[in-house]
Amino acid sequence: MRQLAPRPSVARATGAILSRMSEDELQEIIGKAATLMEALPYIRQFKGKSFVIKYGGSAMVDEELKNSFAHDVTMLKFVGINPVIVHGGGPQIGKTLEEMGIETKFVDGYRVTDKATVDVVEKVLVGKVNRQIVSLISGAGGHAMGLSGKEGGMIKAEKMVITKPGVNENRPEIIDLGHVGRVLKVDSDILLKICRDGAIPVVAPVGVGENGETYNINADTVAGEIAASLKSEKLLLLTDEKGIYDADKNLLPTLSEAMVEEQMKLGVIKGGMLPKVNSCFTALSAGVKKTHIIDGRIRHSVLLEIFTDKGIGTEIIC
């Protein structure tokens, strides 16, 4: 009978591979192992916790960044964290409105939304963007479930108006934003069930009024309200900035609520950043431990913030 040659041990095989590597290649592998070890305590700490992530900006447009994000949230689910995704869709909505000849106007970062516009918003967010994100996560090996905030009355909303000082200080100017909504209540039971069933909820920021009317709600605002309802461990807001800057354009890695309010009074924090910081305030006041505004233009920005000691972007704390 012919005898089979003994199989080399794993150790000998590994040693043979390592002996063929250059020093640079070996150091790269060691660096990857160090990164995994750095992530381990965070995986232990956050297992079973929920993270609300607002997905928007370039991360929703650039193909490489889209795939990076899908793999990030899939990995979070695999290591026992429950990500809940709230997505925007501003560029996609803007493009569709432009093609239809509908003018777009913003006030303090909110899109003024008349009846014609809200129909387009719902069609784009729910019928197109939401499905694309679910498909991306599926392609990354995850299981996602897309839903609108209107489904099951998950996000109850009412009409939102903005008041500004008028010519007469006793008569403020009231700005009607149309079908722009303010969140009244979030039914988190729907989201919790999806998480328990092993899926990743992907929420389109559309709410329902008392009489069944549709409201377009800022995605940052919805993310903050959902984080507050879930009392999630973290709220992460992806944006096209490195974070929050001071008046001299220096990145501020950590800010307290009081410091943020001071920067708002100075006019440093303004425009589209206002809904983001207000979202952080909403979450923090409800018991969310930490909130983060991070640069979604960086590949794997979500993992870098959660699983590394330094993190990225600006952290807003109580």
Overview of this protein structure:
This protein is an alpha/beta fold and 318 residues long. The chain has a domain at 48-240: Carbamate kinase (3-Layer(aba) Sandwich), CATH 3.40.1160.10. Helix content is 42%, strand content 24%. It is built from 10 helices and 14 strands. It has helices at 10-19, 23-46, 63-78, 90-99, 115-139, 188-196, 219-230, 257-265, 273-285, 301-307, and strands at 50-55, 82-87, 106-107, 110-111, 144-148, 155-164, 173-186, 200-204, 206-208, 214-216, 234-239, 254-256, 290-295, 314-317. The strands form 4 sheets. An 8-stranded mixed beta sheet has the order 5-8-2-1-11-13-14-12, sandwiched between helices. Strands 3-4 form a two-stranded antiparallel sheet. α7 packs parallel to α9. The relative contact order is 0.14.
CATH class of the domain at 48-240: Alpha Beta
Structural class: alpha/beta
What is the chains' assembly state?
single chain
Task: Name the beta content range.
Answer: 15-25%
What is the ordering of alpha helices and beta strands?
A: HHEHEHEEHEEEHEEEHEEHHEHE
Unreliable stretches covering 5 or more consecutive residues: none
Sheet with most strands: strand arrangement: 5-8-2-1-11-13-14-12
Main sheet summary: 8 strands, mixed
Report the principal-axis shape.
Answer: globular
